[in-house]
Amino acid sequence: MLSESPISARPRLHRETGGRAAKLYCSKFTKLLLYLSVVNGLLCGIPTNKAMTTTEQTPTKVIDHKPTNTGAAFGSEVSAHMLMGVYRDGQWQEQAIVPFGPLMLSPTNLALHYGQSIFEGMKAFRMKDGNISVFRIDKHHERLNKTLERMSMPQMPFSYFDQAIRELVAVDADYVPDLNEGSLYIRPFVFATGEGFRVRVSDTYQFVIFTGPVGDYYQKPVRVKVETEFIRAAEGGPGFAKCAGNYAAAFYPTQKANREGFDNLLWTDSRQHEFIEESGTMNAMFVIDEVLITPSLTGTILDGITRDSLIRLARDMGVKVQQRKISYKELIAGAEQGLLQEAFGVGTAAVVSPIELIQVHGQDYPLPPYSDNSLWFRLKQRLTQIRTGYEADMYGWNTVLDV
Ligand SMILES: Cc1ncc(COP(=O)(O)O)c(C=O)c1O
Questions:
Q1: Which of 21, 69, 87, 227 is paired with 341 by a 20 to 30 Å CA distance?
Q2: Atom 12, ligand 1: residue with shortest CA distance
Q3: What number does the ligand 1 atom closest to the CA of 120 have?
Q4: Apex 136 CA angle, 135 and 140, nearest 5
Q5: What is the protein's known function (predicted)?
């Protein structure tokens, strides 16, 4: 865990000090961390260069400038600050914004061994008038608390979460890409900081948020394979939760599909391996005979905020929407009869990503070509227009920041 010393009751530290001073502070802070890791390495009997290598291998690049384009690989660049908060003595304590940097963890950290580690994924957008909006903070907070509860972790008051997001995005305002040039991804996460190797629920936690400018997750329509051997989640499990373990368990089958040339899997249910669940980090949507169909929320898929938003927008546009079970057999029948018009994944990172091909049991089912009139395209356009202020925010989804 990052030592608690940089935490103070003054979360706007860097904003007040201004860009250049923040940079200076950042480099001093980094030097301090390096110094501490050297001392730590010596004290622990670890060769110094090893302790430092761990720091150097951080795969993300901390950038100290406004992005001029968002062509960097999604998730590879982060802004120079992060917000930290702690849970101890039965409550969420003070928050502070500090330079982005490594966390120091005990090897007996409970999150590393028993998996109490959860996250959220949100975005801030540059609006047409230059303001910054954050999308659906309340809904993300609601889901964060459901996840925390399922992982036996302490829930967080809305005000604590909301303030943290607002403060950090305000400090990182310069990192929000220009209008229609991308967005600022916001990654809040919480993990156990209790120590000891006995299996137990931690009684202390670290809350961290960092941000990073991002562009498109997928550059082109995706190819997916219907997975009928492995499962992502089963009834009664944590499939609805945004916990780290769900992602780790999905890696093996997903990597296998990647090697076979697919971008992602379409997971199926755990009992019959037949009903579509979701795809990677996206909820799945299909258009069959002019009806938008998406798997219902049965507790095994994530209650996607993009999914929820697009269902509302589609209904507003007069599109018939069904939330129900949909089997791959229905997709095949639809493809064979020429009724399967569209398939797409929806999520904060991927926004709306059209699917060009679905494979089931080795058989390819290509989707018809898409156009600007395709529903996925029109939905994406409306969502973008609301987020950027070109269309009225009818449902109060945007939190417009005072920066
Ligand atoms: C497993 C999974 N399903 C669906 C989604 C889409 O959810 P949202 O629209 O809230 O980003 C995500 C991304 O967060 C995800 O990780």
A1: 227
A2: 281
A3: 14
A4: 115
A5: Acts on leucine, isoleucine and valine.
Question: From ligand 1's centre to the CA of 264, what distance in Å?
Answer: 14
State which of 283, 301, 353, 383 you would mutate to test the pocket of ligand 1, scoring each by most atoms of that ligand within 8 A of its C-beta: 283
The domain ranges of the chain are 13-214, 222-387
Instruction: Find out if CATH 3.30.470.10 is the number for domain 13-214.
Output: yes
CATH code for residues 222-387: 3.20.10.10
Mean pLDDT over each residue of the chain, to the nearest integer: 87
Residue 391 tokens, joined: 């269309």
pLDDT single digits (tens) 49-61:
333 333 344 467 8
Q: Which residue reads 């599109």 in tokens?
A: 319
**183 versus 23: which is more confidently predicted?**
183
Side-chain half-sphere exposure of 217, counting CA atoms within 13 A? 19
Is the pLDDT at 25 greater than 70, yes or no?
Answer: no
Within this chain, domains 13-214 and 222-387 share the same CATH topology: no
> How far, in Å, is the centroid of ligand 1 from the Cα of 37?
36
Q: How far is the CA of 280 from the centre of ligand 1 (A)?
A: 8
For 63-93, the DSSP string reads --S--S---SPTTSEE-SEEEEEEEETTEEE
The Cα 137–Cα 84 span in angstroms is 18
Pocket perturbation via mutation, ligand 1, pick of 134, 217, 348 by most ligand atoms within 8 A of CB: 348
